[in-house]
Amino acid sequence: MSPKTSNMAILFADVSGSTKLFETLGDATARAKIAACLDTLSRVTADYNGTVIKTIGDEIMCTFSTAEDAANAACDMHEALDVDVTEGSIASQTPLKIRVGLHFGPAIMEGGDVFGDAVNVAARMTAQAKGGQIITTQSTLELLSPARRAGSRFVDRAPIKGKKEEIEIYEIIWQEEDVTRMATGLLQDMPKAEAKAIVTYNNQRIELNKSKSILVMGRSQQCDLPINEKLASRQHVRIELRRDKFFIVDQSTNGTHVLIENEGASFLRREEMPLSGKGKISLGRAFDENPTEVVHFAISG
Question: Which of 159, 243, 248, 282 could covalently link to 257 via disulfide, CB atoms 3.0 to 4.6 Å apart?
């Protein structure tokens, strides 16, 4: 009998800044801390009649029968960890935060795992989230209660692999104070600083803004920023500005390694992700290989 496709809510939650956690606490303590975190997330999942599908490193994947249960569980996950702070001196204490992405849609349950479009979209929402955030799609938001919808805000339009058009994504606000302010209209529009990215490599410095919104990097001397890395493709990767947000887009053979401060490392191959704060980029060579040809970036605005 062929597997049956059914609609369900898929939720991913992973520990934000786990690299810094290991640096702060050491391997053994950090592993125990993350394990305790995943246990907490599993308990919250069960409280909302959800099912833990699997844990992958510092990430948990679970399903719920309704979008409302998934959203409520996501909020409770953040609240359960809100008071959790790593040990150490006050100066070195690090809040234990998670980033959550969820989506309601068609998926296939087979062999104890879940596959399908909803899984891919939920994973993409998680990639869009920062520590302390819950990110979801507009279609999922429309399934939530009026109270949950009122406590949300539009974030951006994001491209999804396999889909022709970008989709609108929203943040579900879980902090009671922030929800109250949004509901009572106390939040005032603040003037936006112009989005700007400073990219440096060796002695070269390039600024990206609305006037210059795309930077191509690679082994070719025809690139905006040629990189002297043997593993780099000729036009390996680009950084581009879209609606006041910077994205890095890999178009290479060997992939791109991105390390964002307090976020940990990511690996892209024919994929893209948003950039924020400060960090480093390595073309084709992992950071644990101690690459020498490293690009630095700093995002503001």
Answer: 282
